[in-house]
Amino acid sequence: MVEFEVFRPTLDAALGRKDRSRGGRPPLDAVMMFKILVLQALCGLSDEQAEYQVHDRLSFMRFLGLGLGNRVPDRTMIWLFREALVTAGAMEGLFARFDADLKERGYFALGGFALGGQIIDASIVEAPRQRLTREEKRQIGDGEDPPWPPAKARQKDTQARWTVKRGRVKAKPGPTLDGSEARLVEGLLIPAFGDKSHITIDRRFRLIRRFIVTDAARHDGAQLPGLLNPDAFDSRVWADSAYRSKANEAAIAAAGRRSMVHFRKPKGRPMPEPHQRANRARSAVRSAVEHVVADQKARMGLFIRTIGLGRATVKIGIANLADNFRRLAWLEGRTAPA
Predict the structure, then answer these.
(1) Using CA atoms, how far apart are residues 264 and 299, in angstroms rounded to an integer?
(2) What per-residue confidence (pLDDT) applies to 231?
(3) Which residue of 57, 116, 226, 265 could cross-link 111, Cys pair, CB 3.0 to 4.6 Å?
């Protein structure tokens, strides 16, 4: 279903491999190494687990084009390959190349009135929590480097951030809470540490068309102008109330788009009935992007094991590509002749 050879020119340009006509050990195939990163994203594997599973599973070997006697890359080779992509900033080019391939297959971001538009959302991708003193937190917040030894500094992620996300507590038998106690239970704040994945999907095919990676503390709404897909045929833009602001409404209008962003509740006043009805109708459409996010978190086990925003961008970008690969396989199988 997926022609991985389309990525070879982008990978070769990013890796900058030298001419081997004068000899030397030949490098491992770039496309094969890229496919290992895809397997990691699909199965939520660390570098060590990826090495073990490629050795152990015949299905992985067939996918990679390896035989029982072929050389299998170890965890260090996998790390170095991904690090080369980070250094070259190749993720944007790889994602754009596959998006162009989707368009060549006819998967344009279009659709009729019932299935048109683009949907925007963000989700927190957690990373291992950092154990820092108050002084170290202050220094990092002020943009300073704490005086750590080099070995310790390499193990500290100073670009990821803490934030809080809203959760809900399941209803339990007992007395009904009133007032502020009920609001506290319904709007439970859960601390989280890591980065944030901002994505745009097209409503018809539910393929990820654009993405941005930031630290977890960045406001969702500030990323909307960079997520607008200029190639979408339908003008409607769907997003939750976090994206509702005068600046974003102006950005949507300037891009020739129509805002379908949720309305916010006025402070200290009930939400007008027309806005409530509009939000209910828009939620039925916007919920499609939640399925994409849930698939990455639950089935693919998306988690940041690397350090730094550049590496997190590659990890999340590969996960977005892998999600598109699976979605394309489903779409192609759905339309395949019997």
Answers:
(1) 32
(2) 84
(3) 116
Q: Are 85 and 16 in contact (CB under 8 A)?
A: no
Report the alpha-carbon distance of residue 87 to residue 75 in Å, rounded.
18
Tell me the helix, strand and coil percentages in the chain, rounded to 5.
50, 15, 35
pLDDT along the chain (338 residues), means of 10: 93 79 78 97 95 95 93 94 95 95 86 76 93 90 90 92 75 56 60 94 94 95 94 91 96 95 93 95 94 93 93 96 95 71
Kindly provide the residue ranges of all beta strands, DSSP E only, lying in the chain, ordered along the sequence: 118-126, 161-167, 188-202, 208-215, 236-239, 258-261
Does this model's pTM top 0.85? My answer is: yes
Nearest alpha-carbon partner for 158 in 168, 169, 147, 167: 147
Q: How does DSSP classify residue 20?
A: -
In sequence order, what DSSP letters do the residues of 176-233 get, joined into one string?
PP-HHHHHHHHTEEEEEEEEEEEEEEETTT--EEEEEEEETTS-GGGGHHHH--TT-S
DSSP 8-state symbol, 338: -
pLDDT at position 166 is 73
d(C-alpha 333, C-alpha 337), whole Å: 8
* Separation of alpha carbons 112 and 272, rounded Å: 30
Please give the pLDDT value at position 112: 53
The torsion angle over the Cα atoms of residues 150, 156, 158 and 160, rounded to 10 degrees, is: 160
Q: At what angle do helices 309-335 and 30-43 cross, to 10 degrees?
A: 90
Which residues are bridge partners to 237 per DSSP? 118, 259
Strands 208-215 and 236-239, bridge-based pairing: unpaired
Domain locations in the chain as residue ranges: 4-88, 110-316
The full length of the chain comes to: 338
- φ and ψ of 336, to 5 deg: -70, 145
Sign of CA dihedral 282, 295, 77, 65: negative
